[in-house]
């Protein structure tokens, strides 16, 4: 991790950090203008995620509730993630 992400205003550098409903997730102030950050947010359609709020200008979001699998539209192969983390 590169210390670009904050949770409730504190830098988080743990990729598997568990976020709880109500917590504010954001991009660290010093990181907001980095090309890698701005490129990754281009075309981000936050409105398809009903379980979060997102402020494009501030680059912060709030987890409203833990999503169910059906709430996540991406084609994720969970078994590959489990495989990776179980090594």
TrEMBL record:
Segments passing through the bilayer: none
One Pfam annotation, family name? S4
Sample GO molecular function, one term: RNA binding
* PROSITE patterns recorded: S4 (PS50889)
Domain RNA-binding S4, chain residue ranges per copy: 1-25
Q: What is this protein called?
A: RNA-binding S4 domain-containing protein
Q: Which organism was this protein described from?
A: termite gut metagenome
Source taxonomy: unclassified sequences, metagenomes, organismal metagenomes
